[in-house]
Amino acid sequence: MQTDIDPRNLIGRKAFDRKGTKIGTVDEVYLDDATGIPEWAAIRMGLFSRDAFVPLEPSELVEGALRVPFDRALIKEAPDFGVGRHLSPEQELQLYHHYGLDIAPPPPPDREFGKIAGKEEA
């Protein structure tokens, strides 16, 4: 998704699945803890329904609506963590697995960590 979009501008937009079926309305946007980039949207799936989390990458903002490249049924079955609270790394991992998305492995440890600059190893 475009990373230059203000996440506040997503709230209230209609959301559609990959077939063009309306899913609901964007209720909340969750930012990545490390980067501050919008990562998840909570979609209100009906007047009395719960919110379902959808990944903003690879979703797209098309003609003012959020297009999510997954079927409505899969979105409806997403793990329910409640809204208004922080998503833990474990919860995010569950969501990534639910949607069949690969996540990048953590970067390798910095081999230079703890060394003093300019010092040669003996």
Automatic annotation (TrEMBL):
Annotated signal peptide: none
Basic and acidic residues bias locations: 109-122
Biological-process GO terms, alphabetical: photosynthesis, light reaction
Pfam families to which the protein is assigned, alphabetical: PRC (PF05239)
PRC-barrel domain residues: 8-72
SUPFAM superfamilies given in the database record: PRC-barrel domain
Annotated region (Disordered), positions in chain: 100-122
GO annotation, cellular component aspect: plasma membrane light-harvesting complex
Stated name of the protein: PRC-barrel domain containing protein
Originating species: Streptomyces spongiae
